[in-house]
Design a protein that fits this description.
- By secondary structure, this protein is α+β, with helices and mostly antiparallel strands.
- It has one domain.
- It has six helices and eleven strands.
- Strands 2, 3, 4, 5, 8, 9, 10 and 11 form an eight-stranded mixed sheet that branches. It has a three-stranded antiparallel sheet with strand order 1-6-7.
- The protein is globular and about 55 Å long.
Length: 249
């Protein structure tokens, strides 16, 4: 597969997309007055909820936690909350923070997850974006070395920062996850509290073991599998989060 790409400035990639952030970027986003959304998914140590071929990548970006009598691996994403146009997009679809824009924005249109190949058909960029410009992929391989380094930086941040994210979530009372592949739990924390806790935990990580996680599932069939594995499942309606189902209707 060969792919070229040239941004035409349509602004679609900056609209209605929650952009994953590193801890430094999340702090910057808070300083700028933006909202961070916390997206959580997990799988069990026995592999429930995860295709076998994806396990190594998923494990490396997840924190090992407890749920009931079993162990789970939870992945936590801090993302810029963009419902509608990004707050940093001006009237001419130019980025107001271009020189300090997040890593994921720099990496676009490439994917961070190594198990998700670039698929131009699902991108919102207009057709002309793929007709000219620098070569991105040649013979199925990414040829832009600088872009490859940015992708690795993003993946490395995922791996290095997950334990701190877990501790931040514990301090904010975020303790309900979805099962990977079944959905996400989504939180919109108070940003003043978020920034304060982020600073505190980074300065002095919590010494005590954090509290256990609970699972919010899309249906009783999935819940039964989780319960049979020893994990705990929530039974009440969400109060401080939303559940985003990935289950086909």
């Amino acid at each position: 597969m060969n792919t070229t790409f040239s941004c035409v400035g349509c602004g679609k990639c900056c609209t209605d997309h929650h952009v994953p952030l590193t801890l430094d970027e999340a702090r910057m986003w808070a300083d700028d007055g933006g909202q961070v959304i916390v997206l959580v998914e997990a799988f069990l140590a026995n592999g429930l909820g995860l295709p076998a071929g994806q396990r190594e990548h998923a494990e490396r970006r997840s924190a090992r936690v407890h749920s009931g009598t079993t162990e789970a691996l939870v992945a936590i994403t801090f993302a810029a909350y963009n419902a509608g146009r990004c707050r940093n997009l001006d009237e001419e679809n130019l980025c107001r923070i271009y020189e300090r824009r997040p890593l994921v924005c720099r990496i676009y249109p490439m994917e961070i997850n190594p198990h998700i190949p670039l698929n131009t058909a699902v991108k919102e960029c207009p057709p002309e974006s793929w007709e000219t410009g620098p070569q991105l992929i040649l013979g199925g391989e990414l040829v832009d070395r600088e872009l490859a380094q940015l992708i690795e930086r993003s993946r490395q941040a995922d791996r290095e920062e997950i334990r701190i994210k877990d501790q931040i979530c514990a301090s904010l009372g975020i303790r309900t996850t979805a099962l990977k592949g079944d959905g996400f739990t989504a939180y919109l924390p108070d940003m003043s509290a978020f920034a304060t806790v982020l600073d505190q935990v980074r300065l002095k990580p919590l010494e005590q073991e954090t509290t256990e996680w609970l699972f919010h599932l899309s249906g009783d069939d999935v819940a039964c599998q989780i319960l049979a594995s020893g994990a705990r499942v929530v039974t009440e309606a969400p109060v401080n989060y939303a559940f985003i189902s990935l289950r086909a209707a």
